[in-house]
Protein: Ras-related protein Rab-36
Organism: Camelus bactrianus
Amino acid sequence: MRSSLVPLGPPVSQDRVITSFPKCYTPAACLQLREHFHGQVSIACQRRSTGTVGEGRTHVQDDGPKTVLESNTHVPRRLRLSKVVVVGDLYVGKTSLIRRFCRNVFDRNYKATIGVDFEIERFEVAGIPYSLQIWDTAGQEKFKCIASAYYRGAQVIITTFDLTDLQTLDHTRQWLEDALQENEPGTCFLFLVGTKKDLLSGVACEQAEVEAVRLANEMEAEYWCSQVTGKQAHV
Ligand SMILES: Nc1nc2c(ncn2[C@@H]2O[C@H](COP(=O)(O)OP(=O)(O)OP(=O)(O)O)[C@@H](O)[C@H]2O)c(=O)[nH]1
């Protein structure tokens, strides 16, 4: 079935088109992909998940109700969008992580984030356009109150620390607490990300990761590590 939503902007890059799903999230579970699903239910689901998308009309014809979502390019449509907030101490690599993910670049020169910044990354999930709005916050204490104004309404909180500096891991609990304070309990997916894995190896790395996994379990977050340098970038 053809997606009835009008994509905004240029086509989504191939690596952002998601057609395979983890167990339980099969394409068959997506209403918009079911050929014989009742049109009115499909349109209701599309509306529900987007708020305002789909200025559709329902035509009742002789052979039963048929729903047509018409693309009206003059009417701005709201994107399906999730807000991701990245927090953590200064210099741990938040900006580098986001820039590698969104632009596939890495810069060794440190330029402190002033306040906040954000990137929009577009995906296509089961034929439906979907975007992540990724907020990069400043780690410097003096910008904390500016950055924290942007924590509200997050669906995902990524708390970062530097694997080579375990003090930054100790501080993650506070960063997470601050971000959670601005959001309804139980509404955010939580991740703890250890950065700069390329700078650490052997026992030191194992020890840092054991500690991080333990803390992630306590925070009910999922632990990941990253290295965003060179061609071996890995998140
Ligand atoms: N070797 C290595 N260096 C990294 C990695 N990620 C970031 N860096 C370096 O670490 C420094 C700090 O990175 P940023 O991404 O600017 O740190 P930040 O957390 O955004 O800093 P603030 O904006 O001050 O909060 C930069 O010099 C980066 O080049 C990594 O995976 N490996």
